[in-house]
Amino acid sequence: MQGTARNPLVILGIDPGLANTGWGVVEQRGARLRALAYGCVTTEAHEGIAVRLKHIHDGIAAAIERYRPAELGIEVVYFGANTKSALATGQARGAALVAAAAYGLEVGEYSPTQIKQVTVGEGHAAKQQVQYMVKALLGLDHEPAPDHAADALAVALCHARLRRLV
User: What are the structural domains of the chain?
Assistant: First the structure.
């Protein structure tokens, strides 16, 4: 169900990463979208993997608890040349998905190309183009920072647009 004037749909977008997991909360009322909040869960490289994943889980759980989204959009892991990085991102993604499952959120998964295509109109858009369009589409007076949070808002926008198709 799309958000209506009486019953807005709140969507949490996640840009997973072991060092930085961006999150962004968007409210949808009909065709209108607005940002409610965004941020980033940052972990330290000197911490053990289990501690870092717990920080990510707890940070996402806190955002869910505070903003009460009904649905979550999350970026899928891109397996490029750096498989070590992809595995770490996959673990961060798993921590965020466990938090979503604990709160019963519906989940949509989107590739980087899908997210850029929906947000910018070009599947291979630069990060700066995504930030600019997130600002424009959500009517913000500034580009969201850090870029992980802007990417998470882009995931939430993508979910709002494609959720009925997945």
Answer: 9-162 (3.30.420.10)
